[in-house]
Amino acid sequence: xxxxxxxxxxxxxxxxxxxxxxxxxxxxxxxxxxxxxxxxxxxxxxxxxxxxxxxxxxxxxxxxxxxxxxxxxxxxxxxxxxxxxxxxxxxxxxxxxxxxxxxxxxxxxxxxxxxxxxxxxxxxxxxxxxxxxxxxxxxxxxxxxxxxxxxxxxxxxxxxxxxxxxxxxxxxxxxxxxxxxxxxxxxxxxxxxxxxxxxxxxxxxxxxxxxxxxxxxxxxxxxxxxxxxxxxxxxxxxxxxxxxxxxxx
Length: 249
Ligand SMILES: [Zn+2]
Fold this sequence. Notes:
- By secondary structure, this protein is α/β, with parallel strands linked by helices.
- It has helices spanning 6-16, 63-73, 94-99, 121-127, 164-171, 207-213, 230-248, and strands at 23-31, 34-43, 49-55, 84-89, 136-143, 150-155, 182-183, 186-187, 192-193, 218-225.
- Zinc ion is lined by residues 58, 61, 141.
C-alpha cells in the first residue's frame, strides 16, 4: 500500500491556493512528537450560498481526500464561486489517513462521536465550522463492501425535489451504481438511501445528523465502492460533488 502523508496533503493544497484564499487552522491534534493541524479552507467568501465539503473522517477511505486535492489543484472549484462559498475540510482524521485506519489515534470512530459529551478533539474542531448555517453539506466516504456507488440523502422536507438520483446519473459513466434494495441495513432505491434516523432517539450521531441539527438544509453522504481502482473513485466523487453544486445553485 502506498504510504500516505498528511504533510503532503497540506503542502499540495497550500501550493494550489492563491494567497488570499487562506487556510484556517481549526486546531491541532497531537501525533507522536508533533501536532497535526486540522484545516478548513474557505473559497468564495461571501457568496450567496454556503456549502461544506469534508473528507477523511474515516482514515482508510482516501478517495475523498484525493478528490478534494484534485478539486483545488485543478481549479475546478472556481466556476462555482459566484454562487457558492465553499468550506472544505480536506482531512478530518489525519492519523487514520496516514495509518490507513478507519479510527483516529485513540481508536475512536469520529463519525460516531458528534453527540458525545466528550468528543475526540478532531470532532470538537469540526463542530466549530457549524457556527454559521450551511445550505449544503457533502461528506465523502468509501465502502469496501459495496459493489457500486451510493449515497445517503437527508434534508428538510420543504427543500423541494431530492437530488440524489441526478447525482448518481453523473457518476454512472465512471463507476457502477449499487442498486440493491437494502444497503448497509437500510432500505435503498437506485443507489439512494432516504432513511433519516431521528437524532433524538439515537445514542450517537454521525456528522450528518449533527449538521442537520445545526440547520444545514441538505446533507449528502457519498460512498464509493472501495474495491474499485482509486482513480475512478476519485473521479466519481468529483463528478458527484460538482453535480450537487450545479443542481443546488
Ligand atoms: Zn466512511
